[in-house]
Write a structure and sequence with these properties.
Elements lengths: L10 E4 L1 E2 L9 H5 L4 E2 L2 H15 L3 E5 L9 H12 L5 E3 L10 H7 L7 E6 L3 H6 L6 H13 L4 E8 L6 H20 L10 E8 L16 H14 L3 H13 L4 H10 L2 H7 L6 H9 L3 E3 L2 E2 L12 E4 L7 H4 L15 E2 L6 E4 L14 H8 L2
Parallel strand pairs: 1-4, 4-5, 6-7, 7-8
Antiparallel strand pairs: 2-3, 9-10, 9-11, 11-13, 12-13
Length: 377
């Protein structure tokens, strides 16, 4: 006999079919029109038969947009009154953030507090408007705040990546939405909120579907995404900076892809790393942020500062006595060989930019033309 718990191990009671919201990526919303609702008496009868034939202890009220069912509070109340004595819990699927669910949520927590799932789909308001989602971050904050006040502590967000016109600012917005949910939890007084906050984010890839407004939109290839993420990860660059570098690279003479790599290679934190003053670029970025380096005798604490030929990068005088830099000048110091466009004398705490880096000086296996293809869409 199977012993592993299966997914969706509950009664699925379909309360309605179809949806009038018109999200531009949703095929089901197009195919199952018009919207039709089942009557409450019919649903109550179906619930009795399903529970009697299966023995489940949880029932999910399913549809494309359950929050839009016109008799949802009354249905939830009736189900709890009839089946609560058998400890049957009522749960809701992913919900539209702009649905009014206060009474229904109170009914579903009577037997068992199941998690709440909301579907903002995109991380920024711009992209939510593009896909016709029509909900705001303020509405999400209001809904989860209300839920936390009523005793919930588990929230799941459904989102998508690869949507048309998407940038990585939109993807970073997904993380910001999750942080906003956490902020709302801690804004509820301790004596009211439940312990054990759990916020999970599910992100699926956009797949264009027939009969939808987005049916002819292309998908990002795995190779394009992998190359972009590789450069961003190695140099520790956020999307806004990365896009700024790309735009600057396209205005320069030569190949945009090579120009992009040369620009990020000229960053001060990368130069500090290349000269051997730090073990990693992340460490170099922290050292620059804390003012441990000068450029041409002037303290610079901006990791993205772009060096130029003739610049002298040096450990600041006040920082030379620290153990971190003393070990770079001792007899046992290991000298890192910098690339050809940089010079550093042995046991010296300074280096010189002799020329601009060339593509062959960047030894990472990156296919920069794929990055250009991705950003030139």
């Amino acid at each position: 006999m199977p012993f592993t718990e299966i997914v969706h191990d509950r009664v699925m009671l379909e309360v309605a079919r179809g949806c009038t919201r018109g999200c531009r990526f949703c095929q089901a919303g197009i195919l199952y029109r018009p919207q039709r609702e089942r009557s409450m008496p019919h649903l109550l009868e179906l619930a009795r038969k399903l529970l009697a034939n299966t023995g489940y202890e949880e029932m999910s009220l399913s549809s494309l947009s359950t929050g839009d069912y016109s008799h949802l509070p009354e249905l939830a109340r009736a189900l709890v009154e009839e089946h609560g004595c058998n400890r049957v819990a009522i749960s809701l699927p992913s919900l539209r953030i702009d649905s009014v669910l206060g009474d229904t949520l109170e009914q579903t927590q009577t037997i068992k507090k199941t998690g709440l799932t909301f579907a903002p789909e995109a991380g920024s308001q711009r992209l939510r408007d593009v896909i016709n989602k029509g909900v705001t971050e303020e509405q999400l904050r209001a809904r989860v705040h209300e839920a936390f006040e009523k005793g919930w502590s588990a929230v799941k967000l459904y989102t998508m990546c690869g949507l048309p016109t998407e940038t990585n600012d939109d993807l970073e917005g997904i993380a910001n939405l999750a942080k906003a949910v956490v902020d709302e939890y801690f804004s509820v007084p301790k004596e009211i909120r439940q312990k054990g906050l759990r916020v999970s984010v599910s992100t699926s890839s956009f797949v264009p579907k027939p009969f939808t407004p987005f049916q002819w939109e292309p998908q990002n290839t795995m190779e394009q995404l992998a190359e972009k993420q590789k450069v961003k990860f190695v140099y520790g660059i956020l999307e806004r900076q990365f896009r700024s570098y790309y735009e600057k690279a396209t205005r320069m003479e030569g190949r945009p892809g090579e120009n992009l790599l040369i620009l990020v290679e000229r960053r001060l934190d990368n130069v500090v790393y290349r000269l051997g003053f730090a073990m990693t670029r992340r460490e170099a970025r922290q050292l620059v942020n804390h003012g441990h380096f000068t450029v041409n005798g002037q303290r610079v604490d901006i990791p993205s500062y772009l060096v130029k030929p003739g610049d002298v990068v040096e450990v600041a005088e006040k920082s030379r006595s620290s153990v971190k830099f003393k070990r770079l000048t001792g007899e046992d110091a290991v000298m890192v060989t910098p690339p050809q466009w940089l010079e550093r004398e042995k046991n010296a705490l300074k280096g010189t930019v002799t020329k601009l880096p060339a593509r062959e000086d960047i030894d990472m296996p990156i296919e920069e033309h794929l990055i250009v293809e991705l950003y030139s869409k």
